[in-house]
Amino acid sequence: MRTDTSPTIYRKDYTPPAYWVRTVEMGFDLEPSATRVATRMTLERNRAGRDRTLTLYGEELELVQIRLNGKALGKNAYALKDGVLRIADAPERVTLEIETLLRPDRNTSLMGLYVSNGNFFTQCEAEGFRKITYFPDRPDVMATYKVMLRADKKKYPVLLSNGNLIEQGDLGDGRHYALWEDPFKKPSYLFALVAGQLVCQEEKIKLKSGREALLQVWVEEGNLDKTQHAMDSLINSIRWDEERFGLELDLDRFMIVAVGDFNMGAMENKGLNIFNTKFVLANPRIATDVDYGNIEAVVGHEYFHNWTGNRVTCRDWFQLSLKEGLTVFRDQEFSADMIGTDSGRAVKRIDDVRVLRQAQFPEDAGPMAHPVRPDSFVEISNFYTVTIYEKGAEVVRMYQTLLGRDGFRKGMDLYFERHDGQAVECDDFRAAMADANGRDLTQFERWYSQAGTPRVVASVAHDAAARTYAITLQQSCPSTPGQKTKQPFHIPVAVGLLGQDGKDLPLKLRGSDLQGTTVVLELTEAQQTFVFDGVADLPVPSLLRNFSAPVVLEYDYRDDELAFLMAHDSDPFNRWEAGQRLALRRLLALTAAVRAGGGMAVDPALGESLRLTLTDDALDPAFREIALTLPSETVIAEQMDVIDPQAIHQARRFLRHALAQALRADLVDAYRNNQTPGAYSPDAVSAGKRALKNLALSYIGELDDAAAHALAQTQCDGADNMTDRFAALAALANGSAPGRAAALARFYQDFEDEPLVIDKWFSLQASARTTDVAAVRKLMQHPAFSLKNPNRARSLIFSFCNGNPSQFHAADGSGYDFWAEQVIALDALNPQVAARLARSLDRWRKYAPALRDRMRSALERVAAAPALSKDTKEVVGKSLAAE
Length: 883
Fold this sequence. Notes:
By secondary structure, this protein is of the alpha+beta class. It is about 40% helix and about 20% strand.
């Protein structure tokens, strides 16, 4: 396990702790500038080991005193160095009492105990608990906790911690107390406390077993009108987990608390989930349809952790995806089920895959590439990545694809039966899936141990005389840091065949009893051929249906075949995928033309295919919106050997403008036909109509003429919900409308007291195509901007560096100079946030030489900064060292 004296931690070096902690009692006397923490824990030596040294970790603490079995220890009785406290030759059973002094008001890292807007909050995952007290702060050390909170009653009337409220009362000196007890064993990273001026919405529900539970959503005064959707999402999450997986809430109460200063989206502390306000607060005035969907997903995610993460947790941090990948999959399935329609599920699936391709595929191809179960790390906070979460979810989804929904449920049931209350490994989950279904999943382990995105190349052969159709699949995986060669993966490839009439053919796979119109081929070798019998006429293959594995599929479709799939494929994902492939071909050709200095032209066939989709009223509006959204600049860049951001941007903008011209009448019709009169509702049907309407508006806005300006201005002025108003403002901000500046100013004036909306305002301007570095620097001088708040830093600085590639990658390198300044400034305040910003340049070697040299200089400038945190140092070091 990790110590601060070891720069790199390796999974192979894991050893169980020398001592197990059985019980923890904590007392907090809460004061912003000087909080005292008294901790009493009982420990027992791990009889499986020989180590008699009791090891505890602490950071930024003042150690007041320490007592062992009732006896005060002098400084000669223990060793304290580099944040590690060691007591040699400790007894077999230990009662350890430690008093520490903290200064929460100075804690800008937002890890451990800190103050936000006058209230106390904690964040202990991954290693924040060691900023509260000295402790064996590792996930395999699980104990029960009893926590006493004491504070000034007027300043901090609400005192919350994990589990159930046992007792509360006055102390007689203007102070009061609350005693909380969590009856379930948990690791220290799940500890939480909250204290301050808060109000709550609460509801009581009856669980499936008949027990009653109290649900609470705590927010700052003035935000109660924004909590209903979070409460509804929590109730829906509880009901869904009962029905889908037979898992019930195990506490008497469940609390959600919203805080404006938070490094993450939310945290699943047992019974006391602490959330970024971004994923709690919503009403039609301040939240978009996307916000409503994100809140539902994140509330579900953190609640589902109650079982997949809390009741069964990770043996060590290398197993992080054991809880995160599994729980992301669960929240994806929950969100899809909440939509309820096949088309809606397909749109959700497409959204998830877009995130994977835009964020995780580049990570898999860069210097920070790592397996779903990493082999080493320097700073664990750097491994809360899209690989751990989103690719981890795809790995879990493949179990369901291979075993079926019922088989997956059987595996989940066995997993909990075996491991409830334990800290386990990814291999334990795989074993439960295999044993519950009588399957050999030995090779499937490679999804956990090998980094990189596999490539699957498909080829076909049709024999009309023999009425056979053969699909040959070849797999390979590029080299990644530390892993030059890869063994074949176990890849489920779902396929269908479309006849000449556009309908699915019934499939008979030779040597298998698999039948139906979609079958899952199991690719386990470097090359395999699968033969279908009874195929008289040449079909069009529909490959990797529903994106059945996180791979890059290469098949040489003709343009007419892609258009055919766009029009007929019964698999909605592949119908969308065909359109994306067609559009990506055009975008890459246009980009090449820009780089060659030639003229650009658009093939009318693409416009006609998109017109057919746009005007097909049999398709849900939400699907049409996502089908008409062109591949992002990031996705285009990933297809290029040498990235040219300016050429990509110019090509994509040209295509959007050309499509807007060609489809203008149809876009106007779509805009008019998808209005949602009446009171705002975030339901899937209404949200889908608004999505299509506002996509049409954004295309029309590309024309940048008086009619387009008027349409956007009218919607901006008359919108009764944030979705429509913000979409209209975006259309104005990305063009040359005369009312652009006034619209932005009015938006700020209308919402200056709503921090989450002002985040949107900063983000919109940062990502606008006319915003350069000078404009961002000017926005940083705005009174509403603060580098200390992660949401605000992300809204402006991250949005510019990651969401405005043409301006960030300016030829003069000004974007990279700005990036270096902000990484260094953030690192002094909040290393976690700084390290995430540092990732913006980790693919620097893929760019044209002039940009590449300036990126390297910026990276070297950061690397040379004094007192750089290990969080940022690891990212920058790996970026510079990558081959």
